[in-house]
Design goal:
about 450 residues; 10 helices; Alkaline Phosphatase, subunit A; about 10% strand; alpha/beta; seven-stranded mixed sheet
């Protein structure tokens, strides 16, 4: 069949953010050999950004209330931003501020533990029983269009430990998915596969890896019969991880015939130390996230900017950036000026979120600004110290997905819960969902 003038060659590439890279599959490529990866258009994406320890919420009779209360003054579209969220004023039409939402199971646990269930709604009371996170529900459906299922990012990397995780993402068994935090490793792993090996070399490497996985799975059948109950559980977890590896190997094989160009990463700093340059570190991570969405390597991302309870590098962000105490200490301090110090930190996080929104709005693909086809949830699992109710949340983006922004809405926690928001978000991504975790249905407003 003859190639039409509007058909794009699969080797077409784009330039932006200081890089040159392969375009993802586009409709104009439909008549090329890449047509086996046809997909519904345009792409729909999901992103979560998290900060710990809650926000400043001085009482209404406090002189700090009108200036440093995180939630706006007044509701509806005529709300007034305080200093805490003032950096976001240029994006009022792109976002909705949500109050009153939380996870019922988390309302009675120690507040810092609620971070583990921010995206799961899992029951962590008594015996620790977490469940799949909403980003991974979306990733299961959307990964068929992309090289990678999802990106799970944090400032500390790894999984942390139960009740103080360093990841937002959990698999179908409720096990934490290790997060990644070193920009250079992220860049080389996702944007320069196998260090620039040829397609033939990558295919050989993948085939060898797949054989290893298959052999381990086959050998485990006889081995498992000789194990006790606890060891069988551990082995099942291990095999589940291997299964995820095999799925990614298969996905990689599918994309081998889509050549990747070398990148010029001069505008993305890949070697920033979060302990000395927190703003640069967070923004560099956000640059990589924007690049990932622009090149369509994945459509689902989560980023834990800092951990709960004074853990990890992120607790020092206010010390380095603002000359304040550590984040956890600020959240517990009750000295004079406490609310202003906490509010200044809230404002600092809002500035980083504004940077991300600016990037997403000013970076485009063939469908327009990335922001318009991306649902972004920014927030924390606590409102104030150890209080896992009335989570501070901002939903942004998705104007092409039918989201009506521009208002502050405070929900009644007896009628609505955070998981209802997740149900609505999934439905906006064409992932038909009736229930997620402890939801009672879709959210009654905004979505």
């Amino acid at each position: 069949m003859n190639k039409k003038s509007w058909h794009l060659d699969r080797r077409s590439f784009l330039r932006g953010l200081g890089v040159s890279c392969m375009l993802p599959y586009l409709e104009g490529m439909a008549m090329t050999s890449f047509s086996k990866l046809t997909e519904p258009l345009p792409p729909k994406r999901l992103c979560f950004l998290y900060f710990p320890n809650g926000v400043a919420m001085p009482p209404k009779d406090s002189p700090y209330y009108k200036k440093w209360n995180w939630f706006p003054l007044g509701e509806g579209k005529e709300y007034q931003l305080t200093h805490s969220l003032d950096p976001l004023k240029g994006h009022r039409k792109d976002l909705s501020i949500l109050g009153g939402l939380s996870h019922p199971f988390s309302r009675t646990v120690l507040g810092h533990m609620a971070g583990d269930s921010f995206l799961t709604g899992g029951d962590l009371r008594g015996e620790y029983k977490n469940s799949i996170s909403v980003d991974q529900v979306a990733a299961e459906k959307l990964s068929k269009y992309t090289r990678f299922k999802s990106l799970t990012l944090s400032t500390d990397g790894g999984v942390g430990y139960k009740s103080r995780t360093s990841t937002l993402s959990f698999n179908s068994s409720g096990k934490p998915i290790p997060s990644e935090h070193r920009q250079r490793e992220l860049f080389e792993r996702y944007f320069s596969p196998n260090g620039g090996d040829t397609t033939q070399e990558r295919r050989k490497s993948l085939n060898q890896g797949k054989k290893i996985v298959d052999l381990v799975l086959e050998d485990s059948k006889g081995f498992k019969r000789r194990l006790g109950a606890n060891d069988k559980v551990k082995l099942d977890e291990y095999l589940s991880s291997l299964n995820e590896v095999e799925k990614q190997l298969s996905r990689n094989e599918k994309w081998l015939d889509v050549p990747l160009q070398n990148f010029d990463a001069s505008l993305i700093d890949l070697d920033i130390d979060p302990t000395t340059a927190p703003e640069d570190y967070v923004r560099s991570m956000m640059d990589i996230m924007v690049l990932g969405f622009q090149t369509d390597i994945t459509r689902v991302m989560s980023y834990m900017m800092a951990r709960e309870d004074g853990m990890g590098f992120g607790d020092n962000f206010p010390k380095i950036a603002l000359g304040l105490q550590g984040h956890h200490t600020i959240s517990h301090d009750r000295a004079t000026g406490h609310w202003e110090n906490w509010g200044r930190l809230d404002r600092w996080y809002a500035q980083q979120f504004n940077y991300f929104l600016d990037k997403m709005k000013n970076t485009t693909d063939v469908y327009g600004p990335l922001l318009d086809n991306t649902l972004i949830l920014y927030g924390s699992a606590c409102s104030t110290t150890h209080n896992a109710r009335n989570c501070p949340l901002i939903l942004a983006g998705g104007s092409n997905l039918g989201v009506e922004h521009g208002a502050y809405t405070h929900f009644d926690e007896k009628k609505e819960r955070l998981s209802n928001l997740f149900v609505s978000m999934l439905n906006k991504l064409d992932i038909e969902t009736v229930r997620f975790s402890d939801s009672t249905g879709p959210l009654s407003a905004v979505l």
